[in-house]
Amino acid sequence: MDYKLTFVTSFILAFLLTPIFRFLAIKLNIMDYPVSDVKTHKKPVAYLGGLSIASSFFITLILIRLTTEFPTGTLTVLRGIFYTGFIILIVGLLDDIQYKGMHFTTKFFGQIIVATIIIFYGIKIKFISPDWFAIVVTFIWIIGITNAFNIIDVIDGLSSGVCAIAAIFFFLVGTIGEEEIYVNYASITLVGACLGFLPFNLSKKYKIFMGDTGSLFIGMIISVIALGTKYSINHDLGVIAPVIILLVPIYDTLLVSLIRLKKGMSPFLGSKDHFALRLENAGFKREQILIVSYFFAILFGVIGYLIKATTIQVSIILIIVLFIKIYFVTKFLVNINIE
Predict the structure, then answer these.
(1) Which helix (H) or strand (E) holds 45?
(2) Peptide bond before 130: cis, by omega within 30 degrees of 0?
(3) CA 304, CA 228: separation in Å to the nearest integer?
(4) Kind and range of the H or E element at 268?
(5) Angstrom distance (rounded) from CA 115 to CA 135
(6) Measured between alpha carbons, how far is 187 from 88 in angstroms, rounded to an integer?
(7) CA-CA distance, 255 to 37, in Å (whole number)?
(8) Helix or strand or coil: residue 33?
(9) Rounded CA gap, 320 and 170, in Å?
(10) Of the candidates 20, 6, 1, 2, which has an alpha carbon nearest to the alpha carbon of residue 190?
(11) Which of 47, 171, 189, 265 is least surrounded by CB atoms within 10 angstroms?
């Protein structure tokens, strides 16, 4: 199965499965009720969109396994992705089916188990030494990115759309040089799954949320995908490429955490400090917020790609310009009144 067929298969499966899971969610009353001030929707909305994303991802990869010859060791990595993907899916689902969700410590415990299994299967940061420190940083990376995609899931289409864009660039980055083949297949499969779900998430008539089931799943999968690529083939600065590619969710996570801590709040409790909700408070329509978010996700993806593909001198210039832009964007966002 080639990459184009992989994408099409994943997209079609997600597009067909999403309305089925929406129907089941309504029948089983698995709904997102606006029970807190943090919720921005007014009426209950069906959950289980995350199951359509995950199902299409798993089914597509199984089909790939049956139709593609993989290099030695790749199937072991894919098994690790399957096991951990299933576990994080259960964690998210248990949160979604509870009226007010589960405590964040319970979700963290599940994420720690997932990160441990991923490392057991040999998926970890390889450019850091000693080994124990690489394992610690891998734990932080997996848990951090998993939660980052959960954190930015505050308006329709944001988390899944940004994930699809980032996965496209991990696929493109994976085509530079000889990479782990699972990176390319998992990336393009994730793109198709997210895009197949997106029309329903953005629909008014057939709206469905992916919930923690979906946001935790896509966050975990893309954190693992990011660990499978060699970024320093041209220069050592290339190792920051995955951080740049995933800068939209990373930025929002850091922004809300720092603002909450400054206010004396726990960074684990919900609030309306997210950049998307700040933009909405500043008068942006949600469609405009998505366009802005997708634009920056693409921009960061291009910069991340160039940092790996180009010289260290060009990379330094790109990074300096990028962080100057981020400074001014942050200055604008923090001055928006959200009270």
Answers:
(1) strand 45-46
(2) yes
(3) 15
(4) none
(5) 10
(6) 18
(7) 20
(8) coil
(9) 22
(10) 6
(11) 265
Say which amino acid occupies 220: M
Among the listed residues 309, 88, 96, the one whose alpha carbon sits nearest the alpha carbon of residue 209: 96
The tens place of each residue's pLDDT in the chain, 339 residues long, gives: 688 999 999 999 999 999 999 999 999 988 877 765 555 656 888 889 999 999 999 999 999 888 877 766 667 788 889 999 999 999 999 988 876 667 778 888 899 999 999 999 888 888 787 888 999 999 999 999 999 999 999 899 999 999 999 999 999 988 775 556 778 899 999 999 999 999 999 998 899 999 899 999 999 999 999 988 777 777 888 889 999 999 999 999 999 888 888 877 777 666 778 888 889 888 889 999 999 999 999 999 999 999 988 889 999 999 999 999 999 999 998 888 776
Estimate to the nearest angstrom the gap between the alpha carbon of 66 and the chain centroid: 27
Q: Taking the model in full, what pTM does it have? A: 0.92
Which tokens sit at 184?
């390319």
Angstrom distance (rounded) from CA 65 to CA 38 = 42
* Other Cβ atoms closer than 10 A to 133: 11
CB 221 within 8 A of CB 57: yes
Residue 325 CB: number of other CB atoms within 10 A?
A: 12
Nearest to 289, CA basis, from 190, 202, 193, 196: 202
Residue type, 74: T
Contacts of 334 (CB under 8 A, 6+ apart): 259
Q: What is the DSSP letter of 238?
A: G
Assigned token pair, 230: 């060699």
Q: At a CB cut-off of 8 Å and minimum separation 6, what does 206 contact?
A: 19, 22, 200
Give CA–CA dist 202/246, Å, rounded: 22
Residue 283 CA to residue 292 CA, distance in Å, equals 13
Q: In whole angstroms, give the CA distance from residue 40 to residue 155.
A: 8
How far apart are the C-alpha atoms of 240 and 141, rounded to whole Å? 12
Sorted by where each begins, the domain ranges of the chain are 3-334
